[in-house]
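Support request, please re-run this one:
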Amino acid sequence: MGRTLRDAALLAAKDLRLERRAKVALGQMLPFALLVLLLFAFALDPDRGVLERATSGLFWVTVLFTAVLAVQRAFAVEVDDGVLDALRLSGIAPAAVFLGKVGALVVELVVLEVVLGLGVAVLYDARLEGWGLLAVVAAAATVGIAAAGASYGLLAARLRQGSSLLPLLLLPLLAPVLIAATRGSDVALGRETGSGWPWAALLGVFAVAYLVLGTVLFRPLLEET
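Re-run finished. Output below.
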């Protein structure tokens, strides 16, 4: 387990270094996400009540759409350069490759969510009332999105039209995460009464399930890529 985690950390650092040099996240994904938020703000601005009620949903929909781009980018480089074949022959455990991909995606999504959170505060006039709840909801949702994305990203990489099929494969799987993250965020923002912790717990279940499932399935997917 210790070696697996060390290899995963090295692979995640490798992916992040490549991303830092390519600047795709900075030059494409962040502007795309902010543009989506801006378009929603303009489209719903005549009715501020609707915009305020939909803040959490719009935020997480934007995160999901941008996550698809991040997953496509993460595996496009590996496929084009033959890195997946090298990883398969390197002796590194497939679980480490999976966890490394998840770790890199989590870091990218966290940066994205921080920037989008600032955008929501400015454009949607959002006021945060539950920092702890929102942090747990965001962490669990981010891990779940990254784990599902890493599994389905490799699956899509095996398909001839994988880049166009990835959203169709990934988004339905993440619909429960979107719902739970939206409801928990609504409570944290004071838009909904009641406790948001059951939603946070549900997100934790999804995150663990996707991590376990991805760890089990990544080996056969990697061997057949």
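The two ends are 25 Å apart (CA to CA). The mean pLDDT is 85.
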